[in-house]
Amino acid sequence: MYRELVLKKISPTVEEKEELKRIANEVINEIKKYTDFDVKLLGSAARDTWLRYEKDLDVFIFFPKDYNKEDMERYVEEIARKIFGKYEKKYAEHPYVRGNYKGYDVEIVPCYKISDPKEKASSVDRTPFHHEFVSKYIKGKEEDVRLLKQFLKNLNLYGAEEKVRGFSGYLCELLIIKYGSFENVLRNATKWKFGEIISFFYVDKSKVLEKFKGQPLIFIDPVDENRNVAAALSVENFYKFIFYAKEFFKSNDKLKFFFKHEEKIQKEYAIELFKKRGTSLIGILIKRPDVIDEIIYSQARKCLRVFRENIERNDFRILLSEFLVSNNNVLFMFELESDKLPRIKLHKGPIVGSKEEERFLRKYRGNIYGDPFIKEDRWYVFAERKYKDIYELINDMLSRKDLKSIGIPSYIEKSIKESGYKLLKNEEVFLDEFLDEIYKRLFPKIL
């Protein structure tokens, strides 16, 4: 019963499909006015696995192999200028452009015209072979792909980009081809273990695990056996998918797995609820660097790790650490048990009788909080902390001349150097632009 209700909302109508075909043909014909190279529509729009609220067209231009990337970039930019007027330049391994045509988001992607995926110069050159494989086996299963995509979108697990680190559209299609239906994908997922290997052909599991070590899900690309289609999937999202697959079969309310009810959060209510926790909330707000999502999310994730390591190294206990990105700003958020620590700490020294013993005793003997003492087989001392206040630690950390020296990535370092940063405390962290996401992080719900 749920299938019909969900598909009624997410499947494009006959009229919508016809309109998409018409617009796609218009775009292709417009492009062909300015090139003699082959032009093709690829992706979910070409395979009828798109969701009705997605109006995305992926149009590929096939270049001879003697073209370099700079020439390809200039070529597609010139075409985009003529067709779209205004456009965005994006970067994968080849630069590509994105513009709007009659309400449709259109990407014009340059790739090399090759006859075998082994000839590829970059990952985008595999795409035509992906299209050929999926088109051959997906017929009759398009609606199941839509169900899987909507399931993942509702759970924030859809998309291979750095922002999400989830399941790509291509991976969704391969899972449906492999297991036959949406329900069978979930049924199999309930049995997945870390390092799960999926393939359409025989593989040596020990070699595959060695090649893709540390990756939770390994789906061997049917057109390139050296590639894991699920490489972007994070460990966290892998386990989330398994959990929700199990929950799906237990629940009588299947619709909630496809459409979530978004409640409007009031700032005063969120702050009042937070205060009951008795914790300290810290925010570091910087101006968003003018770079694409893929770069800013990657650098923000790395920066969060640097902040967290420095905070924990100085004995502050972190309950929650997150980063949030808006069009204008990046917020690093930490919930601590306390933003202040005692003046002294128990400092562990070397093993009694070791070669480090003399230096340790020389440093701490005569310490105002008492001399070093032996506990079991080690020396210890009550030593004064360098940082007793989290704000002092963060200000000291971010006032360095060379932030790269502590691991702060380049674009974030540049933003801090040029625009500074704001240190926010408790209710100050509840900024309007991030309010909903802050609430979700502080008060998570399973569904």
Description:
With 447 residues, the chain is α+β, with helices and mostly antiparallel strands. The protein has four domains: 2-134, Beta Polymerase, domain 2 (2-Layer Sandwich), CATH 3.30.460.10; 142-257, CCA tRNA nucleotidyltransferase, domain 2 (Poly(a)-polymerase, middle domain); 267-340 and 388-442, 2-Layer Sandwich (Alpha-Beta Plaits), CATH 3.30.70; 344-384, 2-Layer Sandwich (Alpha-Beta Plaits), CATH 3.30.70. It has helices at residues 2-10, 14-32, 44-47, 69-83, 127-137, 142-154, 169-179, 182-189, 205-211, 235-250, 267-275, 293-313, 357-364, 390-398, 410-419, 435-442, and strands at residues 38-42, 56-63, 88-91, 95-101, 104-112, 196-198, 217-221, 224-228, 280-287, 318-325, 329-336, 344-351, 373-375, 378-384, 422-425. The strands form four sheets. The protein has a five-stranded mixed beta sheet, with helices on both faces. A hairpin with a 3-residue loop joins strand 10 (318-325) and strand 11 (329-336). It is elongated, with a radius of gyration of 27 Å.
Record field, number of beta strands: 15
CATH architecture of the largest domain: 2-Layer Sandwich
CATH superfamily caption of the largest domain: Beta Polymerase, domain 2
**How many separate domains make up the residues?**
4
Low-confidence stretches: none
SS summary, helix count = 16
Q: What amount of the residues lies in strands?
A: 15-25%
Distance between the termini: 20 Å
Indicate the multimeric state: single chain
Structural class: alpha+beta
